[in-house]
Amino acid sequence: MGIVQLFHLFFNIILLFGRFSFVVQVKDDKTNGYDGIRNNLAVKFDTYYNHEQHEPFENHISVQTRGWSGPNSADHNFSLGYTNTIPDLTDGEIDVRIKYVPRFDVDEITKESFTVTSHTMHFFENSDYPHGGMADWSIAGLGLLYIYVENLKDATLVIPLNLDATLKLNHGRAWVGFTASTGIDTFQVHDILQWKFSSLRMDIDHYPPLIVNGNGGHV
């Protein structure tokens, strides 16, 4: 699927227990889950509390990635944003909408749904940024990932994201899909009742590079 530009996903699920994730990844990997796989991003819907992964208590959603350079992990040290201010995910059918827009809307910053983490800042300051090198993310190409749960008009979670710089895409394309698990000693069925994915072309805003005295050039 083409995902560098705007993409839009809708799905309807029944999730009675465990973890269910929407995954964007570059490699056609049939492995169950996303943990330990490089170059992917996962939006997880989780009903179980894993204290060893520094999760918020039980019912929550989170966006997990370590970018193109590190294997992804469900540990919340690698979350770009999460919230547990959501409806009960185990309460029957749940409607979900996920939208990525490669443009940054500054009006979103003042809303409760907008979230950043220390892991978000990693992408602005990694590589050789302290000595003037370019980090993975910059203002140019920065967009927003919107996640809606039940209320498909007002986003539940909004995070800054430069998808093209986070993953090493295949000419702007990647695989999208779903994965789910319940743990070793439990059993449950995760039902996807319907889903629809679409992508549209959207020109990315361009910002000329700035020179920061003493630190080299940054965008």
Quick rundown:
The chain is mainly beta. It is about 5% helix and about 35% strand.
Description of the molecule:
This protein has helices at 118-125, 163-166; strands at 6-15, 19-25, 40-46, 60-65, 79-83, 93-101, 143-149, 157-161, 175-181, 190-200, 210-212, 216-218. 30% of the residues are buried. It has one domain (6-204): Jelly Rolls (Sandwich), CATH 2.60.120.200. The longest helix is centred in the middle third of the chain and has 8 residues, at 118-125. With 219 residues, it is mainly β. The model has no long low-confidence stretch (mean pLDDT 82). Strands 8-7-6-1-10 form a 5-stranded antiparallel beta sheet, with no helix packed on it. The chain has a 5-stranded antiparallel beta sheet with strand order 5-4-3-2-9.
CATH topology: Jelly Rolls
Helix content: under 10%
**Which percent band covers the strand fraction?**
35-45%
The CATH architecture assignment turns out to be: Sandwich
For the largest sheet, list the strands in their spatial order: 8-7-6-1-10
Give the termini separation. 29 Å
Per DSSP, the total helix count is: 2
Alpha carbon gyration radius: 17 Å
Main sheet specs: 5 strands, antiparallel
- Uncertain runs are none
